[in-house]
Structure formats: structure tokens, C-alpha cells
Amino acid sequence: MDNVTPLGGDVYEIDTKMAGYTGITAGYLILGDRPCLVETGTSTSAPVVRDALTSLGVGPDDLATVVVTHIHLDHAGGVGDIAGFYPRAEIVVHEKGARHLANPARLMASARMVWGDQLDVLFGTLSPTDASRIHALGDTGAIDLGGGRTLNSHYSPGHAKHHVGLLDSATGDLYVGDAAGVYLPETGDLRPATPPPDFDLRTALDSVALFGALGPQRLLFSHYGPVADVTATLERSAEELRVWVDLTRQAHTEGLDLDHAVAMVRDRTRERYAASTSDDEAVRERFEMLSGAPSNVAGILHWLDTTKPEA
């Protein structure tokens, strides 16, 4: 299939074709004795993911585990649908997100407030998962991939309070979710993901540092794809967080409202990213969808308003 890319180590990247776009959100299948899907994508992406798994020989009774890095709808919106397609699969999520997968009403209502009518087009509806099938992770945990191979979870908030990173014991792959930001493979750009309401700078930087301390061999971004230069990429991730916070703090100090703060930050970060100056409108549009300046600035302003952090 054109949306399945082998990455080595029995790992396959799946383009979930979010909202019909390519290169927005990746899911990953780890094949082996106990096949595991990392990230489902959105609800509307669930049939795309199912077809990809079928093409890789994973039938309805074969998938052992579904694990999500966090419960934002571009990562976990398809959990209920995928759980229905694969009735034997255990659903794994951090304990702070587990109840929302069992009863998504509050999560969906919150998302509707943010996205309005766009919600249905971009994400669809997260269906509930039977609570008996959900395994809630603590700050660390291990997922059995079979044959002595494990996927080890590490609590990594800052982007979201229910976020985990996942380290494959066999390959050294670290599934970073959104905690290290978003990556655009066409240009090599890396930009932070700092949406409200959970963003916290210190916690986010601590999570990036934790990722480095785990010593991964490769980073697998949900947005989007594999990156082999681990140290430089994590250093850039921390740098981008500081740059966006410093600029947003300046706008906040000057009393700018959200629209003016976004305009200022967008203007002053433009030259940092090749995608921002690309002649390819599709690349520019995808980068903004992956890590929109309004969402990033709003999350940082919310943090500034609620915590009154020191400079």
C-alpha cells in the first residue's frame, strides 16, 4: 500500500491520511509474536489504518495491543473504532487519559468548543471503549511485544498531562508523540506543540531531557516520521520551546491580545523554518496544520496567565 513504509526492525509507518491529507499523522505497527499498533489516528482514519494492517497480514484476531501516546484526537480518536475492528486487542493509555477513552463525552465536548464544525471533518467522533479492555499505565510500564521484546512507557507531560513516550527494547526506537514537537520531513523543520490547557514549559523541557537520557537510537514522530539524529533533534526541540515561550512572554508583557501575539510570534519565527518560506503552498499549509501558531501561542499564554511563572 502507498501509505505503508517499512522502517526496519519489524516496524511499519502508516500514514493515517488524516482528513484526507498525507503526511499529517503517522501510526506505527510493530510486528512480531504480539503485534502492537502505536497511535490510531482519528476516528475517520480508522478504516485506513485497518486496511494497512490487513495488507501487513494482521487480521481481526491478530492485533494484541493498541497503545496511544496521549488522548488528543489526532492520536487516539480512532481507539474505539480500532477496538471494534480488533476485539482481542488490549488498549493501553496513561492513567490520566483512561477514563476519557471509556467515556469520551467530556473530551468530545471540549474538542467541539475548540474546533466547532471542523471537528467532524478533521477528527470525527471518538467512540467509547469497554473499560475492561483498557490498561492504564502509571509513570512507567511495559508492554509485551513477544519474544522478550518490550515497549517501555515513560510519563512525559508538558504537552499533555496524559502523555507517554514509548521505547522499543529491540530497536531503540522512541515514540515521542507530541512531547518533542512536530517534524516536517520535507524540510527538516521542527516546531513545538504547546496547545492549551496542559502546556507547561518546565515540565515540557524535563520530558525532552528524559527522552535524551533514555538513549534512543531513533525518534519516531507521530507528526511525522523517523529521525535518526537524536541528540541534535532533541536539542532543537528544547530550543524551539524556549524561543516560542520567550516571544510569547514578550507579547504578553506588552499586553497584546491573542491575534496580535500570534502575528508577532509568527513574524519573528518565520525565518527559523524552511517550510514558512517554501514556494510550495501545500508544504506551508501542512506545517501550519501540524503545529499552528494560534494553538501554540494560546497554550503558552494560558500557561503564563495561570502560573505567573518567573522570567
From TrEMBL:
<dbReference type="GO" id="GO:0016787">
    <property type="term" value="F:hydrolase activity"/>
</dbReference>
<protein>
    <submittedName>
        <fullName>Glyoxylase-like metal-dependent hydrolase (Beta-lactamase superfamily II)</fullName>
    </submittedName>
</protein>
<keyword id="KW-0378">Hydrolase</keyword>
<dbReference type="InterPro" id="IPR050855">
    <property type="entry name" value="NDM-1-like"/>
</dbReference>
<feature type="domain" description="Metallo-beta-lactamase">
    <location>
        <begin position="24"/>
        <end position="223"/>
    </location>
</feature>
<dbReference type="InterPro" id="IPR001279">
    <property type="entry name" value="Metallo-B-lactamas"/>
</dbReference>
<dbReference type="InterPro" id="IPR037482">
    <property type="entry name" value="ST1585_MBL-fold"/>
</dbReference>
<dbReference type="InterPro" id="IPR036866">
    <property type="entry name" value="RibonucZ/Hydroxyglut_hydro"/>
</dbReference>
<dbReference type="Pfam" id="PF00753">
    <property type="entry name" value="Lactamase_B"/>
</dbReference>
